[in-house]
Amino acid sequence: MGVSDIKYKLRTKLSLSYLLITLFCVGAISIFANIFLEKQFREYVIKNQDSKNKEILNMITNEYFKNGKWNYDDISSIGMNALEGGVIIKVKDVQSKTIWDATVHNSGLCNQMITHMSQNMNSRYGDFEGKYTETTYPIMNILKQVGTLQIGYYGPFYFDDNDLRFINTLNYFLIGIALFSFVISLLLGTIMSRRLSSPISRVISSSKMISNGYFEDRITQKSNIIEIHDLISTINNLAETFKNQDKLRKRLTSDMAHELRTPLTTLQSHFEAMIDGVWEPNVERIKSCHEEILRINRMVGDLENLAKIESENIVLDKTEFDLSELTQKIIMNFESDFAKKNIEIIYKGKEQFINADKDKISQVLINLLSNVLKYTGEGGRVNVTISGIKNKVKITVKDTGEGISEEDLPYIFERFYRVDKSRNRLTGGSGIGLTIVKAIVDAHNGSIKVNSKIGEGTEFIVELLKD
Fold it and tell me: Could you give the CA distance from residue 210 to residue 40 in angstroms, rounded to a whole number?
């Protein structure tokens, strides 16, 4: 297995990401802080050295008297203080006669100081090319040079013990921050990764259960992260959808078996009775068998029609026609059927032209009217309305039948789903009439919805685009 094939847990990757980002940030800050601060500190040391030189020059200048004499005691004191500060001075008059020289006063201390400075700088900078440097300044008194001041120091700059102690303390402080950040990032990374990975792991577990056919599991964990919250909601909705689909699939299998078993059982019993000589194969019995065969044939035909209509390659033969005129003709074909059950059918509508497949829209109207005819009791009433709304046409079919329960409403467009669980011959049929209706409406980019209340009736509302 190659390196690219190695898999890591999300929690591990998130923790490592927090850790690496923290180390990178602290490391970058430390490096830039060292570079920037050291540069600034170096410039400060150089400027400070220049200021110190000028200060020493001013003090030496003040020790020259107007009578041409020098205050040797104070000059010596100034020189000793300068030597303690890492500066070696030498004062001469205009005749180049030495007035005070730190190397003469204490040669050992001067050499020791220069050696110590060199060691300090080399300990900090291995390739430091510093050396002992002397700068000469003229000593002026009332615009007249009265002598010279030589100031020697380790240049171009140097860090004394206090300076190095400050730099090392800063680095130790940065190292401490890095260690502290390492621990904090590891702790926070672990906490955050657990909060992120825990619901995702739960989603994975639930998904596996769904893939294994168990749809009852639901994720109850909450998350304030939008993406994870949406993921949890999606998986829960998916499980609910699969649960309902599984229930419908099982019911579909049961319904298909029932629908086919009834006519087949009738045929079997009829033929067995005639074979055994119990019944004579007369015209009536053969006609009864023929009716059952026609029933099976109609069921298979309906399934074939549904398969064609639901096909992605369904072809619509669209023409412009008056939907109101078509509806009235179909109602006229049903008048005798409604009259037999003493059902009043009322039509209301004006001319509404649409561009659609006339045959398939006819099928929609026929199936809707067949449905209300089955489930509207004697003496009932059916209202059919055609109306126009902006660029759409609305077909409304409302009956005063027994109604549909809220439990059944979401599934009435499913194959073989029928509110009448008894499947008796009075309300018989294949159970896919409304499925075909919805498929045709969807193929026309339309919509269909149902409003119903038990004991009050049902209302089907179909909306189709005019163009």
Answer: 65
Residue whose tokens read 């009738």: 266
Q: How far apart are the first and last CA of the chain?
A: 60
> Would you say residue 202 lies in a domain?
no
Confidence (pLDDT) at 127:
57
Find the farthest-apart pair of alpha carbons in the chain and give their distance in angstroms, rounded.
164
101 and 75 co-located in one domain: yes
Opening angle at CA 207, ends 205 and 209, nearest 5:
75
Q: Are residues 329 and 387 in the same domain?
A: yes
Long-range residue pairs from 99-103, CB within 8 A, at least 24 positions apart, any chain = 99/70, 99/72, 99/75, 99/147, 100/72, 100/75, 100/76, 102/152
**Do 357 and 247 lie in a common domain?**
no
Cα–Cα distance measured from residue 445 to residue 175, given in angstroms and rounded to the nearest whole number = 68
Half-sphere exposure in the Cβ direction for 229 (13 Å, CA):
5
Whether residues 379 and 354 fall in one domain? yes
Residues 373 and 446 in one domain: yes
What pTM did the predictor assign? 0.47
406 shares a domain with 322: yes
Domains in the chain, number: 3
Q: How far apart are CA 158 and CA 86, in angstroms?
A: 10
Domain encompassing residue 116: 3-175
Q: How confident is the model over 408-445, as pLDDT tens digits?
A: 888 888 776 666 554 444 444 556 788 888 988 988 99
Nearest to 82 by CA among 106, 99, 65: 106
Contact of 87 with 65, CB cutoff 8 Å? no
* Confidence at 392, pLDDT banded by 50, 70, 90: very high
Q: Is 124 helix (H, G, I), strand (E, B) or coil?
A: helix
Domain of 151, CATH number, reads 3.30.450.20
Residue 191 lies in a domain: no
